[in-house]
Amino acid sequence: MPKNKGKGGKNRKRGKNENEEEKRELVYKEDGQEYAQVVRMLGNGRLEAQCIDGKKRLCHIRGKMRKKVWVASGDVVLVGLRDYQDEKADVIMKYTADEARVLKLYGELPEHIRINDTDVVFEGEHDENAEFFDFDDVADI
């Protein structure tokens, strides 16, 4: 029987999530970067994102973020544009909902972006559930 020479199993590798409550400095876009909202996850570290400049791009999550920062559809991310491929980009960082609200307040993000919703609806598209009603509306009657 071989001896275990490691320092532990996969629970040790997961570690503690100590940076949960830590406030970080807000990072603004530079040239060659753009804000985007995740439309859908494609798997294998890739996603489809709607950039603020109006283009849909295929984005790749960088290796430093890959298993540490979980990106979901509807999240606001900062992507680095590629000089040689305009239809592809790289996800540099993910903004929390609070950071995205602050960016929207400062005018960095346009008004039509929904921040805390999982359903991503952009101008020019319509919501397929618009003709239905909420039960909260019925309570007022």
Task: Please give a structural write-up.
The structure is a single chain. With about 140 residues, the protein is of the alpha+beta class. It contains 3 helices and 5 strands. The model has no long low-confidence stretch (mean pLDDT about 80).
Largest sheet: 5 strands, mixed, barrel
Q: Can you count the beta strands?
A: 5
Number of helices: 3
Question: What is the averaged pLDDT score?
Answer: 81
State the end-to-end distance.
73 Å
Based on CA atoms alone, the radius of gyration comes out at 19 Å
Low-pLDDT parts are none
User: Which secondary-structure class do the elements indicate?
Assistant: alpha+beta
Topology:
Elements (H helix, E strand, L loop, with lengths): L9 H5 L18 E11 L2 E6 L4 E6 L14 E6 L6 E7 L2 H9 L29 H5 L2
Parallel strand pairs: 3-5
Antiparallel strand pairs: 1-2, 1-4, 2-3, 4-5
Keywords:
141 residues; extended; 5-stranded mixed beta barrel; alpha+beta; 3 helices
At a glance:
The protein is α+β, with helices and mostly antiparallel strands. It is built from three helices and five strands; from the N terminus they run αβββββαα.
